Amino acid sequence: MNLHGTQTIGENGHLHIGGVDTVELAKEYGTPLIVYDLELIRNRARAFRDTFQKHGVNAQVAYASKAFSCIAIYQFMKEENLSLDVVSGGELYTALKADFPAERIHFHGNNKSYDELLLAFDAKIGCIVVDNFYEIELLKEISESRKQSMNILLRVTPGVEAHTHDFITTGQEDSKFGFDLNNGQADEAFQLVVNHEYLNLLGLHCHIGSQIFETDGFSLAASKLIEKIGEWNKKYGYECKVLNLGGGFGIRYTEEDHPLEPHVYVEEMVKTVKEETSKRQLPMPEIWIEPGRSLVGDAGTTLYTIGSRKVVPNIREYIAVDGGMSDNIRPALYDAKYEAVIANKANLPRNCTYTVAGKLCESGDKLIVDAPLQKAEPGDILAVFCTGAYGYSMASNYNRVPRPAVVFVENGKHQLAIRRESYDDLILNDMEYQLNK
């Protein structure tokens, strides 16, 4: 069993996170409950940021907030002097409500609406990452009608395939994201914006995938982008101010995963960008990156209460918990793997094997298949590790199950970050039937 961040096993045999007994957290806040280890997030954020500073490179580390969004996490990232990557009007609105500095917000998305872009202009955010030709038309219309400038990056697909799952690769040629670097689309987009009166082209952006455990893909993508920037510099005298190499840095979910430390990714990026720009006699751009999962993924632990048990003779033994695909769709969506421990028996050997099923009315609602665990009994607290990314943010009310509560822990203290939804919350937007009355 691999412990993450500040996780320890206390003298009472219980799992502790941030110096707080998880069994006591479950009693106080109920289950399902997602617990975030702030010290782990803080150390990871500083490792990315400090490596750029160590090498004397101007940079922005932008939290890719689609991994987990709420007011409290945005305020925490502000405290750590990070920038912010948002991908919808809802995330942008939440960031503004959290009083996150607008000049450090970058707005992504492959189909931003007119109203979402207006919100970005109203807030005077730091940058819009332009994804397609339709968006260029909208940006020109809005900026010209308002006579308001906006910084932009062009998102390009460099044709680099990350070594990851097909569902989470986004840098290859066949992608819904960005302008293709190899078929002339990026050149066409460049021509449309480079001399625009109100659109200030800072540079290029790419994102080659997620859950990546090597640096080769980032280096190759950086080389391809700088090669294109070099072409534009020769032809038009264009100077790139920002090179955004995206995110996708992997974390450890199970023993099969072997992630690199943050400084390794950053150092390889810095080395490649310095070499490639020097070779072409280009000015060194500011480097932006967008860690999301690698900041919050293994900092999150979901606590469940174990309920029913079912034995299928000679096949498997199931235990069911009081959550499931409504708070973690990833196992059902793309066969994501997790490890777990029974939090109130964490000091005991894991000599039983169970398939952990959720309570949702779907046969595919299984959180972990054949998990090695301590002997499970109804009322035990199951802790599933590394649920901090794309758990709550992809949660739903399927089967009218309320979304769970979220708590932050650090240095023996805990605070509620998102309250548990109530049944009243579930019907808040429902309207009564009136037709044919």
TrEMBL record:
Active-site residues, as the UniProt record annotates them: 361 (proton donor)
PROSITE patterns in UniProt: ODR_DC_2_2
EC number from the UniProt entry: 4.1.1.20
Keyword Protein biosynthesis on entry: no
Signal peptide: none
Cofactor: pyridoxal 5'-phosphate
Binding residue positions for pyridoxal 5'-phosphate: 248, 290-293, 390
Example GO biological process: lysine biosynthetic process via diaminopimelate
Keywords: Amino-acid biosynthesis, Decarboxylase, Lyase, Lysine biosynthesis, Pyridoxal phosphate
Positions bound to substrate: 293, 330, 334, 362, 390
Pathway membership: Amino-acid biosynthesis; L-lysine biosynthesis via DAP pathway; L-lysine from DL-2,6-diaminopimelate: step 1/1
Pfam family, one: Orn_Arg_deC_N
Subunit structure and binding partners: Homodimer.
Protein name: Diaminopimelate decarboxylase
Species of the source: Ureibacillus terrenus
Gene name of this polypeptide: lysA
